[in-house]
Amino acid sequence: MKLSEVIGKTSWPETKASLLWNYPDAAESLPGYEKLFYLLRDLPQSPTAMRLIIRKTFREGLDEEPLLEVVGKDGTLNKELEDFKHLNKAEDSEYGNGEVEYALEFHPWEEWLGMEIDETTQRKYTYPEILAHCLWEMSFMGFDQERILEEKREIMRRVDEIENMTAEERKQKLIPMEEVMKRMEKWNNKK
After folding, report:
1. Which of 10, 34, 50, 116 could form a disulfide with 127, with the two C-beta atoms 3.0–4.6 Å apart?
2. Environment class of 146 (CB within 10 Å of its CB; exposed 0-12, middle 13-18, buried 19+)
3. How many domains does the chain have?
C-alpha cells in the first residue's frame, strides 16, 4: 500500500486526532497540517523505490525517551555506500548487510505519495497514525515545498563550502566534533 492510498482511506478528523495525540505541539500548526492533508489528496504521485518505515528509536545521550521516526529504505545496503570503508565495520557484519536508512524531510511530496508503506509499519500502526507521523515528518521544514527546497539548497551549499575548504580553513572555521560534544554536555548540565 502506498501513502497516497493511506490518505484516501483516512479522514482529516482521524488524522488530526492522531497528530494531536502523538505531537501535542502540532496544535498551533493545525491549519497548515489540514491544508497539507487536502493538498496531498490532489497531488500526483511520483514513482520511487523508497519504502516508508515508522519505527521506535532511542539515541543514547540525545533522547530522554524513545521516539517514533519515519525513515526510508530503498534496498541499498550499507556496505554498498562509498563511505562504508571509513566506518571500520566488516562487510559481512549485521550493519554492513543492513539497508541504508534515509531521512525523508527533503523528499518531494509527490515522491512521498508514491512510497510503499513497509508491511511491519502497516501491521503496527493505523492509517491515521501512519499519516500523522508522515505529515509531521513531511512538514518538518515547513508547509511549503519551495521553502523546503530552498532549505535543502542552503544545506547543500554549506556542504560544498566545507568540502572546498583547505585543511587550514577547516582548522580555523570549524569546531571538531569532540569539542561540540563537550559544549553540549556543559549546556545539558546547566539545565
Report:
1. 10
2. exposed
3. 2
